[in-house]
Specification:
The complex is a heterodimer of chains A (112) and B (115).
Chain A (H helix, E strand, L loop, with lengths): L3 E4 L2 E4 L5 E7 L5 E7 L5 E9 L2 E4 L6 E3 L9 E3 L8 E8 L7 E2 L3 E5 L1
Parallel strand pairs in A: 2-11
Antiparallel strand pairs in A: 1-3, 3-8, 4-5, 4-9, 5-6, 7-8, 9-10, 9-11
Chain B lengths: L2 E4 L3 E5 L4 E3 L1 E4 L4 E8 L6 E6 L5 E3 L5 E5 L4 E6 L8 E9 L8 E2 L3 E6 L1
Parallel strand pairs in B: 2-12
Antiparallel strand pairs in B: 1-4, 3-9, 5-6, 5-10, 7-8, 8-9, 10-11, 10-12
The chains are: A mainly beta (112), B mainly beta (115).
Chain lengths: 112, 115
């Protein structure tokens, strides 16, 4: 199993540009999550999904959108990039609510 | 709302020293507890977890943690640290058996071990 994979690993965006962060898992997990990690702040949940076609907001959803058309994929969309979105983004998945989450390698995004 | 507090922001130890990192959470119900580790340049990996049963749990690489329900604590310990333990450690909590709740992370503790 590859586990959770994310692309790209690094990206630099100009203010106002848009992009999609890709996330795929091959463990047949129902639950998938997007977090952002800022220095000294831990991880904050952006969006999560409990299965294909079902998504919900986390703690910091503003400026982001998600979709879940398949069990495997959970892309995160930034429509109008802002400097405040400079962060490291992690995708994760879990088999069930409350169980351990498996994390991808992360995407380091810089918005200038 | 749930919250997780990690008492130590940055811990510096010499090899072979003992380690204890504090973690407290605020929630009165049943919780599942985790410690994750992030080695430099890598993604988060699970160190150990507690769901129920023996409150002393053992994880990978010689780490262990003790759940003390009365103190809402889940402290991480290791008797003798190694240089390779240099990493950022995160405590995390989720409400057990309640749909729609999220894993709440502490702000992390940076562990630096010198050889």
């Amino acid at each position: 199993n590859a586990g959770v994979t994310q692309t790209p690993k690094f990206r630099i965006l100009k203010i106002g540009q848009s992009m999609t962060l890709q996330c795929t898992q091959d463990m047949n997990h129902n639950y998938m999550y997007w977090y952002r990690q800022d220095p000294g702040m831990g991880l904050k949940l952006i969006y999560y999904s409990v299965g294909a076609g079902i998504t919900d907001k986390g703690e910091v959803p503003n400026g982001y959108n998600v979709s879940r058309s398949t069990t495997e994929d959970f892309p995160l969309r930034l429509e109008l990039a802002a400097p405040s979105q400079t962060s490291v983004y992690f995708c994760a998945s879990s088999k069930h609510q409350g169980l351990e989450q498996y994390f991808g390698p992360g995407t380091r995004l810089t918005v200038t | 709302a749930q919250s997780v507090s990690q008492h130590n922001h940055h811990v510096i130890l010499s090899e072979a020293a003992s380690l204890e990192l504090g973690c407290n959470y605020s929630y009165g119900g049943t919780v599942n507890l985790f410690w994750y580790v992030q080695y430099p340049g890598q993604h988060l990996q699970l160190l150990l977890k507690y769901f129920s049963g023996d409150p002393l749990v053992k994880g990978i690489k010689g780490f262990e943690a003790e759940f003390i329900k009365s103190k809402f604590s889940f402290n991480l310990r290791k008797p003798s640290v190694q240089w390779s333990d240099t990493a950022e450690d995160f405590c995390a909590v989720i409400t057990a058996n309640q749909a729609g709740t999220a894993l709440i992370f502490g702000k992390g503790t940076t562990l630096s071990v010198s050889s």
